[in-house]
Structure formats: structure tokens, C-alpha cells
Design a protein that fits this description.
By secondary structure, this protein is an alpha/beta fold. The protein folds into two domains: about 120 residues, 3-Layer(aba) Sandwich (Rossmann fold), CATH 3.40.50.980; about 250 residues, 3-Layer(aba) Sandwich (Rossmann fold). Helix content is about 25%, strand content about 30%. Helix 10 links the parallel strand 12 and strand 13. Helix 7 crosses helix 9. The chain is globular and about 60 Å long.
Length: about 450
């Protein structure tokens, strides 16, 4: 793409932008720097930055060097960041100087985009040879863990390439498309929205604020002529309550990809029914462990789902989705069972956690490919008569709040570490169909008084 349109705008952040040629040059310089430090295939590099041009430069540089990246959200508690850095055995860390103090427990090499800019700029601007293969890791994203510790799900290069091929071709993205990135880098759905516009010569726009601001997002969609958005349903609903800005969004948005939780069509109906509307809603489904999306459904006739669950659709290219019983036997149409994912999107497993990997990634009895595995999702689902799949909830105690998978046990473990707490139970409180929150019930130690503000912090 750099050779096709070197002077076209690739990425925009606030009043800054980079062309394809500029982005490639900056990424190459950092990639050569990383390679000089020893980054190569199967080496994990941490990246802890807010949305910025440096974020995109850093991701591309890690991949160009042959390494795999681990997103580290600067908003995470320092203890969680420290665990992720240690658990993933991070080789090099990319960050900004002002964020480095949150990562003070890390003892490896740290590259600060700002403080080390001159050293980075001295490196070669030409493309390099990475030696990476389709079976090497591309990234690892940490999700909530039932033991109180997050777990890092590793994704193959080939799995992500398969996702990108489906995403770009299925929705016919071109150089005229613009995406606004509004989700955290640590969220699995974010990844495809960074690379897809760059693959077709489009523009990647980065939301300036790390804080969610529905009015700002709606205004940005209109002003920047954004053609697709991808977020959770609960993150999208407030965008359609912004009056004229919400109506303006419909003039430019071709697609809204929603995933991570069930869609409420009744919540979207007024916006979808208003004129003009060229926006199509796409329901997407897939675990982080299986490269973000393994099934999708275009909501062509929203009114038919006002009182029914919107299906998660059918498997994407080279993905397999099975509804199985306890003995891994396929269930007939309409019968509820556990959803298993097979095919090209199945990831490597959990970083440095062999036992959990063996428990969740099982041998695929339906494949002739040596070493093929199924991912045991823990989701309940069933096939409908038309071949689409209906998601029905979780088997275990894991829940989804605004698209984030959360183990209630992880939160309970954290609260129980407070000295004045004897016992904790965490539940999901659903005040309305579209409003969920976590509520902790706490029993104090004998003769102890709980300070709620301290517990919250």
C-alpha cells in the first residue's frame, strides 16, 4: 500500500497526521531499533501507550521486527500491569516517559517514544526482513481470569490474516473508507480496525480522548466522514441519543459492527427508522482466544428482531462453529449446547499457562488436519433452522459488561485481599435491559468497619 499511495493520508490523530510513506519510514526505523535489541519471531514486546500516532507506529514496528505485541492499557492498575509484564516475559517495553512510572517494576529494556526519539530516528528507514512465518505469534491479549489473575491469549499471524481477508472482502472496504478507533488497544475487536483501513489505503482516525464521550464521538463521525465504527452495543447506544449529530452519522456510516454482548434492536429502532439511513448493523461474535470474530450476522431486517435475540450468524471464512453435548457430539438444530470454535481462527492458547490451555483447547475430532484443536468457549448456543446461530449466555460464572469478559471470581479475590473483609460475593445487577453493573456484597471481619471509598480504590 505504501508503494501504491505513498502520499495518501494513513493515520490521523487530533491535528497530526502521517502519510503511508511517513508511517512506513517511522515504523521501519523503530523496527530496526527493536531488531538490534534482539526482537525476532516469538519475542513478546509490551506496548503501553494511549491512542496516538506512536501507538500505530509501535504496533507496525513490532510486527516488522518479527515480534508479537502485548497491549498494556495505561488505565489498568499498576499491579495488573506488573503481573502481565512478568507473566508474558516481556522482552522490550514501548511506552511514553510520563507513563513509565506506572511500569516501574519492569526491569527489562524500555523504549520511550518521546525520550528516545533521536535514537530511533538514527536507524535505517528501509523495509527489513523479519523472518516471521504464519505460525508465529502476532499478539497476545489479556482477559479476565477465574483465579484472580488475567490470562494472555495468543493469536497466530495466519489467524489474523484470515480474519483480515474476510473482513476487507466481505464488506468491500476501499481507499475511500475511514474508520474511527474508539476502543482500547487492549480490546480484541480493536486490532482489525487498526489494520483493515491501512490494508486498503483508507484512513485510520484515532479518537483523541481516552475517556468515553458520546457527543465527541458522534461529532467526530460526522466531521471526519467516518464510514465504519466497531464497538460494543452499550458503547454505541449513547451515540444515537445525540440529536442532530446522531442523524448526521447515518449519512456517512456504512457499517456499525457490534460485538461483545447481545444487541437490543428496540434500542436502535428509532435511529434506524429515521431518514436518511444507509447504515447496516452487523452482529459479530468471537472469543479473544479465536482471533476476535468467528461468526457474523448482517441485520438486514431489524424489525424482525424486536422481540427475539439477534443471531450471531454463520461462521466466517475458514472458521468452524459447533454446538456440542458433553461428549463432543453435535446437537441437532434447535438443541442447546456448548459452542466450540474450530478452524483457522483458533489461537495458540494462553501464554505460559499450559494447564489452562489444555483444558480450553481440545483435540478437534472433526478435522483431518494434524494438531487441529477446538476452543471450548463456555457459551451456550443453538443452531437455528436457517443455519444461523443463536447465542444464549454463559455456562460458567463469567459475565460480560459493556463487552468486556469478566470473571466474578477475579473481583472477589481482589476485594478479599482488603484486611477488613471476611467474605465477598460479586453479582451482576441489571437495572434495565441495556444497563448492567457489578455489585459486591461484603461481609466484614469481626469488629471491623469497612471504608467503601477504600474498597472502590
Amino acid at each position: 500500500q505504501v508503494e501504491r499511495t505513498p502520499d495518501a493520508v494513513a493515520v490521523v490523530f487530533e491535528d497530526e497526521q502521517l502519510t503511508y510513506c511517513e508511517l512506513n519510514t517511522r515504523a521501519n526505523q523503530l523496527a530496526h531499533y527493536l531488531q538490534a535489541l534482539g526482537v525476532k519471531p516469538e519475542v513478546l514486546v509490551g506496548i503501553c501507550v494511549e491512542r496516538s500516532l506512536d501507538m500505530v507506529i509501535g504496533l507496525l514496528a513490532i510486527l516488522k521486527a518479527g515480534g508479537a505485541y502485548v497491549p498494556l492499557d495505561p488505565m489498568y492498575p499498576p499491579e495488573r500491569l506488573a503481573f502481565m509484564l512478568e507473566n508474558a516475559d516481556i522482552f522490550v517495553l514501548l511506552t511514553h516517559k510520563r507513563l513509565a512510572e506506572r511500569l516501574s517494576k519492569y526491569k527489562g529494556d524500555v523504549i520511550c517514544f518521546d525520550a528516545d526519539s533521536q535514537a530511533i530516528a538514527k536507524h535505517c528507514p528501509e523495509n527489513q526482513v523479519s523472518g516471521v512465518t504464519p505460525d508465529n505469534l502476532m499478539y497476545a491479549i489479556y482477559t479476565s481470569g477465574s483465579t484472580g489473575k488475567p490470562k494472555g491469549a495468543g493469536v497466530y499471524q495466519r489467524s489474523f490474516a484470515n480474519l483480515m481477508n474476510w473482513f476487507v472482502t466481505e464488506f468491500d472496504f476501499t481507499c475511500n473508507d475511514r474508520v474511527l478507533l474508539i476502543s482500547s488497544l487492549s480490546f480484541d475487536l480493536t486490532q482489525k480496525n487498526i489494520y483493515a483501513p491501512l490494508l486498503v489505503g483508507g484512513e485510520l482516525h484515532l479518537l483523541s480522548s481516552e475517556c468515553y464521550d458520546a457527543a465527541q464521538i458522534a461529532e467526530s463521525v460526522c466531521n471526519k466522514q467516518v464510514t465504519w465504527l466497531n464497538c460494543t452495543p452499550s458503547a454505541f447506544y449513547p451515540l444515537i441519543d445525540q440529536g442532530d449529530k446522531s442523524l448526521c452519522m447515518k449519512k456517512t456510516l456504512k457499517y456499525v459492527f457490534l460485538g461483545g454482548e447481545p444487541i437490543s434492536i428496540s434500542r436502535l429502532k428509532v435511529w434506524l427508522d429515521s431518514i436518511p439511513c444507509k447504515t447496516q448493523i452487523v452482529n459479530t461474535y468471537g472469543p479473544t482466544e479465536c482471533t476476535d470474530i468467528c461468526a457474523a450476522y448482517r441485520v438486514a431486517q431489524p424489525e424482525q428482531w424486536l422481540e427475539k435475540l439477534v443471531p450471531i450468524g454463520k461462521p466466517i471464512h475458514n472458521a468452524k462453529v459447533y454446538i456440542l453435548d458433553e461428549n463432543l457430539k453435535p446437537l441437532p438444530v434447535g438443541m442447546v449446547g456448548e459452542l466450540y470454535v474450530g478452524g483457522e481462527g483458533v489461537g495458540r492458547g494462553y501464554i505460559n499457562n499450559i494447564d489452562l490451555t489444555l483444558a480450553k483447547f481440545v483435540s478437534d475430532p472433526f478435522s483431518n488436519k494434524p494438531g487441529a484443536r477446538l476452543y471450548k468457549s463456555g457459551d451456550l448456543a443453538r443452531y437455528l433452522a436457517d443455519g444461523n446461530i443463536e447465542y444464549l449466555g454463559r455456562i460458567d460464572h463469567q459475565v460480560k459488561i459493556r463487552g468486556f469478559r469478566i470473571e466474578l471470581g477475579e473481583i472477589e479475590v481482589a476485594i478479599n485481599q482488603y484486611p477488613a473483609v471476611k467474605e465477598t460475593v460479586v453479582v451482576v445487577s441489571e437495572e434495565s435491559v441495556n444497563s448492567k453493573r457489578l455489585v459486591a456484597y461484603v461481609v466484614p471481619q469481626k469488629e471491623q468497619t469497612l471504608a467503601i471509598p477504600e474498597l472502590r480504590s
